[in-house]
């Protein structure tokens, strides 16, 4: 009788946990579909951008802003959505985000100029900012801490599938029916997801705040993140000393203590600072930030290496990194299952970062002549390490914070991952450029080019940087416009490829340091607290074993 009463109390406190299994699976399908749309959008656009820029008569500067505008709005709004979903409900904020994303997608397909496309991509990003953090938080609402591992791993699998499918689908749609459809393909799937979410998802939420939200903190946060992301993005084409790089980063740094001061005194802070007093939360946020630095370089540079050194198309380069994605999918799902079965996570995250470090270390030995089979093995090992950092870190975060902070905590995790990736991309881009410049002339000489001609080639090609662009004419064709190279074109090509490969390898050293630091942080700082909840079969372990949030929140009625 007492147990029955406790069961009833649990159902009242956390009704989402008590939904029928079939209902949970329907909601899970809708959530994964929404995440797939967001992930697909990040991979499908890149293939079509050259065609889009040509038809809309854009420039190289505007080319990058098609990506940057989406990145800016999605990154900034993600934290806000997390906080608002804790207050007003997951369903409301997720429906709003997906709707805005679909409106942005529709408008992108109608774009008549590069400026309009950039603006509409910003609208898309405003919607996309809600998708990933709230979707992860919904899993926290639907399942007990012990169960979450089985389902969080599916998110990594969805990203892996989208990474492989995106380039192929983007190329096919662009060539067969027009680039507009890479945006419009989102519409039917998005409408289906909206229907399922609206129809079935109960929305866990807190009481509306009795005082105003932290609008000042939100404004300072948004301005600071804009300067941070613009500075890191501009570093890909500029120098640290440039005002639009270093200056922007200094502005962001100066706004950081201002933001922290505001948040420490706000009645309803956008980013509750007390969360960082929770040891596992702070450790996991830092580890996720460092892991993102480690693997974003791989995701960016490996396709570029294939396109330049192996001279394959963007679509083919996506196929070549399939072993990396296979490793991510396998280990992301397996890591979640292991957490679900064992109720422990420290050994899994420690092992994952260790394997990831091995994978990154292997790529520091990359050369132009590295065998394809060797590359596949290295990528698979790296993917095995990356996967659990995507799924298990989310489980740790959600198990560490009060139930009322589930959304904002998940939003913060997504934010710091994105910032880590941006920092990693800016730094490894600098390392690559400096390394290539220093290795270019010696690699030509080593490949058999006479020293005088090697110096002439380096001088006439801006240190070789002009030769590293992918797409367009082949390297041999571009060399035809260089000073006379009769009889040594093959040697020059080999030297350029080797310098490029060694520079990519040098860039991986920074990722290795970040990964090793993340490994140390987890090994020393993370406490392996048991997860309670459901057993492997989904049957209750007894109410005394179920983790009931002390601050569980009311739930809207399901229509």
Detailed description of the structure:
- With 559 residues, the chain is mainly alpha-helical.
- Among the domains are: 11-209, MFS general substrate transporter like domains (Growth Hormone, Chain: A); 211-267, no CATH class; 437-501, no CATH class.
- The chain has 19 helices and no strands.
- The model is unreliable at 1-15 and 534-559 (pLDDT under 50).
Count of helical regions:
19
Which homologous superfamily in CATH is the superfamily of the domain at 11-209?
Answer: MFS general substrate transporter like domains
| Rg over CA atoms | 24 Å
Say how many strands there are: 0
Largest sheet: none
CATH architecture of the domain at 11-209: Up-down Bundle
| Contiguous runs where pLDDT drops below 50 for at least 5 residues | 1-15, 534-559
- Please estimate the helix content: over 70%
Percentage of residues in strands: under 5%
CATH hierarchy, class of the domain at 11-209: Mainly Alpha
Return the structural class. mainly alpha
Q: What's the shape? A: globular
Can you give the mean pLDDT? Answer: 79
What fold name goes in the CATH topology slot of the domain at 11-209?
Growth Hormone, Chain: A
- CA-to-CA gap between the ends? 31 Å
Keywords:
19 helices, globular, Growth Hormone, Chain: A, disordered N terminus, 559 residues, mainly alpha, single chain
């Amino acid at each position: 009788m007492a147990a029955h009463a406790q069961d009833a109390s649990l159902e009242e406190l956390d009704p989402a946990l008590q939904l029928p299994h079939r209902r949970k699976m329907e909601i899970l399908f809708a959530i994964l579909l929404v995440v797939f749309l967001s992930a697909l959008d990040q991979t499908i656009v890149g293939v079509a951008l050259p065609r889009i820029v040509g038809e809309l008569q854009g420039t190289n500067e505007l080319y990058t802003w098609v990506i940057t505008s989406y990145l800016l709005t999605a990154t900034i709004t993600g934290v806000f959505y997390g906080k608002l979903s804790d207050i007003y409900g997951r369903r409301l904020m997720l429906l709003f985000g997906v709707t805005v994303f679909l409106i942005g997608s529709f408008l992108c397909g109608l774009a008549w100029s590069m400026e309009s496309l950039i603006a509409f991509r910003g609208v898309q990003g405003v919607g996309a900012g809600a998708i990933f953090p709230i979707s992860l938080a919904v899993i926290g609402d639907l399942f007990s801490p012990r169960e979450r591992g089985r389902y969080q791993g599916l998110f990594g699998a969805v990203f892996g599938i989208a990474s492989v499918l995106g380039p192929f689908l983007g190329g096919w749609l662009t060539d067969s029916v027009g680039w507009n459809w890479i945006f419009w393909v989102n519409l039917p799937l998005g409408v289906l997801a909206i229907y399922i979410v609206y129809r079935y998802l109960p929305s866990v939420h807190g009481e509306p705040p009795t005082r105003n939200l932290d609008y000042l903190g939100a404004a300072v946060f948004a301005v600071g993140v804009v300067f941070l992301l613009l500075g890191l993005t501009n570093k890909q084409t500029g120098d640290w000393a440039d005002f639009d790089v270093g200056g922007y980063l200094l502005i962001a740094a100066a706004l950081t203590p201002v933001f922290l001061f505001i948040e420490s005194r706000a009645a309803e802070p956008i980013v509750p600072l007390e969360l960082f007093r929770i040891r596992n939360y702070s450790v996991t946020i830092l580890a996720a930030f460092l892991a993102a630095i480690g693997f974003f370089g791989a995701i960016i540079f490996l396709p570029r290496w294939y396109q330049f050194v192996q001279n394959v198309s963007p679509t083919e380069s996506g196929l070549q990194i399939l072993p990396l994605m296979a490793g991510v999918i396998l280990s992301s799902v397996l890591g979640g299952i292991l957490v679900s079965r064992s109720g422990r996570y420290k050994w899994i995250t420690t092992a994952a970062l260790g394997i990831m470090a091995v994978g990154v270390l292997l790529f520091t030995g990359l050369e132009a002549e590295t065998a394809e089979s060797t590359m596949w093995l290295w990528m698979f090992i790296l993917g095995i390490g990356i996967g659990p950092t995507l799924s298990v870190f989310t489980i740790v975060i959600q198990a560490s914070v009060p139930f009322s902070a589930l959304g904002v905590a998940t939003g913060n995790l997504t934010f710091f991952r994105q910032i880590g990736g941006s920092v990693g991309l800016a730094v490894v881009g600098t390392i690559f450029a400096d390394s290539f410049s220093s290795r270019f002339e010696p690699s030509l000489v080593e490949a058999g080019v006479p020293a005088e001609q090697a110096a002439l080639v380096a001088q006439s090609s801006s240190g070789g940087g002009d030769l590293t662009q992918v797409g367009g004419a082949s390297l041999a064709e571009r060399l035809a416009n260089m000073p006379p190279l009769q009889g040594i074109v093959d040697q020059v090509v080999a030297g350029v490829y080797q310098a490029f490969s060694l520079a990519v390898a040098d860039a991986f050293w920074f990722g290795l340091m970040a990964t090793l630091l993340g490994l140390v942080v987890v090994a020393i700082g993370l406490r392996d607290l048991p997860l309670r909840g459901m057993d492997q079969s989904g049957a209750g372990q007894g109410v005394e074993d179920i983790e009931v949030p002390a601050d569980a929140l009311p739930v809207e009625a399901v229509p």
